[in-house]
C-alpha cells in the first residue's frame, strides 16, 4: 500500500469534522424515515395486505447486501466521490462517470425537488394555510425558499449541518416510536403476528416483486453519509460502520411502525383500513388523529415536514462532495472543485445544486403536478441501476483477492454479488412494470410516462458521457490512473 503526497489527495475539506454518531445521523436523515414510511407503507399494504412487514424485510435484503459492498470499497478507497471513484477503478472512466456519477446525481436531484415540495406543502398545512397548500405555485415558491435556507446551512459546514440533523432526526424517530406505541396501546387493537413476516404467504410473484420494489425506495439514501468520508474521523472505517448501523436502525424503525399500523388499522378497504386507496398516499396523516387525537396529530405532520427538509439538507451536503471529487479527478469543470476558504465546503457546488433543485422544482411544477409525481416514481429505476453496478464493481475490483480469506470471499464476493444481481433484477422488473401506461399518472403513445422519464434520464446520461469525453479527454483516457493518484489510500 502507498500513500500519495498530501498535496495530491487533499481536496480542501476539513478532516475529522464528524464522528460515528454524526455519520449515522446523516445516513438516517438522508432516507427521510417519517416521509418515506408514510408515502410507501400504504401502497405496500394495497399490494400484499398484512404481509407489509414481510415486504419491508425482503426489500431490506438487497440494501444490506449492497451496503457490504459500499463498506468494503470505502475501506479500500475512502474518497468523497464514492460510487464515481469505485466504478471508475473497477470498470473504467465511462462506467464510473455514468453509473457512479450521472445516475446517482440525477436521482438525487429529482428527489431533492420532491423533498422540497413535500416540506413546503406540510409547512403550509401546519400553519393552517390550506388554500395555499393546494396551490402548486405557492407551494413551489415556499419550497424554493426552503431550498435557499438549507443551501446556506450546507454551505456553512458539515458540523453545522450535522448539529441540525440531530434535532430533525430526533423529532422524526420520537414521533414514529410514539405513534407506534400509542397505536399498539389502543383498546381493541389486534395483536401483532409473526405470520406477517412470512414472504411465502404472498399469493403471486408479481405482488411479491412489486412490494419489494416499493420498499427499496424507503431505504434509499443511506449511502449519502459515505460522501463525507474525507471529513470523518477514521475515514476508512467509520463511514462503513455508520452505513451498516443506519440501515439496521431503519429496518427496526420501519418494522415497528408497520406492525403498529397493521395492528391498529387492519387491511380493510373502508375507513382507516390500509386497503382503502384514499389512505395510501399518506398513511400517518390518515391514522394520526384516531391514534393520537387531533392536537398530537399535528406532531406527525411536523415530523413528515422536517423529515423531508432533513433529507434535503443531507442531499445538499452529499451531492456537491461527489461533484467535487469528479472535478478533482478531471471529469467535471474545475469550478466544482472550489472549496470555501473559511468553511472548507464545496462552495460553488453547494450553490449549484441548490439552484438546480429550485430550477427542476419550478419547471416540473409548471409543467404538471402529475409530471413531478412520475419523475419521483422513476427514481426506483435509477437506484437499482447504480446500486447494482456498484455492488458488482466491488466483486470485480477484489476478484484477485477473494481467496485471501473466508472473510474476503464472503464480504467482498458472495454478498456483494448477490446484492448486485438482486438490484439488477429489480432494475429489469422496474422497467417492465413502468412500461405499462397505467403505471403512474402520464403516458405517451401507449408507453408509461414513468418508464420514459427513467429511461430518458439514462439515455441523457449516455449523451452526457459523450459530451464529457470530448470536454475532458485526459480523464476518459487515463481515468483509472488519475483516480489512483488522488486517492487517500490506493493500491499499487
From TrEMBL:
User: Localized where?
Assistant: Cell membrane
Q: Where are the transmembrane segments?
A: 20-45, 51-70, 97-116, 136-154, 166-185, 205-222, 243-265, 295-317, 348-369, 375-398, 410-432, 444-468
Q: How does it sit in the membrane?
A: Multi-pass membrane protein
- Per UniProt, what is one GO molecular function of this protein? transmembrane transporter activity
Q: What is this protein called?
A: Amino acid transporter, APC family
Predominant localisation class: membrane
Ordered alphabetically, the record's keywords are: Cell membrane, Membrane, Transmembrane, Transmembrane helix
InterPro entries per the UniProt record, alphabetical: AA/rel_permease1, APC_superfamily
| A GO CC term attached to the entry | plasma membrane
Pfam families reported in the protein's UniProt record: AA_permease_2
